[in-house]
Amino acid sequence: MNAKKFSDAMSELDTKYVDEALNYKTKMKKPIWIKWGIMAACLCLIICVVTIPRLLNGSNPPISGDLAPMVYVNNKLYQYTDSQLDFTDKESQFTYLGEIESKVSSSQEPKENFQANDDIVGAKVYQYENNIVVLIDGKYFLYSHMEDAENETVEFEGQLFNKSDLSEETLEWLEWYNSIPPEKQLAVNSIPAELYTDDGVGTVDADQEK
């Protein structure tokens, strides 16, 4: 077939067949892009599922098992407390004791000096009043003496309050207050009535517990 005959034959093709062929090619390509889009979305979802919990837990110590995190220091057992303080500008009150040297199972209580039941070997330990402060991943965490667990105290403006004397709402307010920077604490102009100390009721003098 010469060039003229080929050209004549091509001109006889109905344009609708050409359009159908082009549309078919486009339809064949579309599912590929959809497939890649779905794969990318799934990948983003996996990254979020793995990353977000780690970010949210950045303010908590590593907790790997059955019992609450504990450390045994100077023949005393201390337990991680839910009432964490802001230790900004309080490092001068710390007394360095040493580092966590060994660990036991998370289902056991540590019984040797500088031993923990969590993965914090190497963490620095400080004495803070009657309690222990442990430096974990650049953040200080408070551990209370186990004998004082039933009579655990919280601090507000230099005063220690027995937790059992405070309502749940006040404890939640204290947790929030102690978590904000000192400059923002100064701007707080309303405090729960239970924390007024004019008559000293319900408070424990911090100096008496040292």
Automatic annotation (TrEMBL):
Keywords: Membrane, Transmembrane, Transmembrane helix. This is Entericidin like toxin protein. It comes from Coprococcus hominis (ex Arizal et al. 2022). The chain crosses the membrane at residues 32-52.
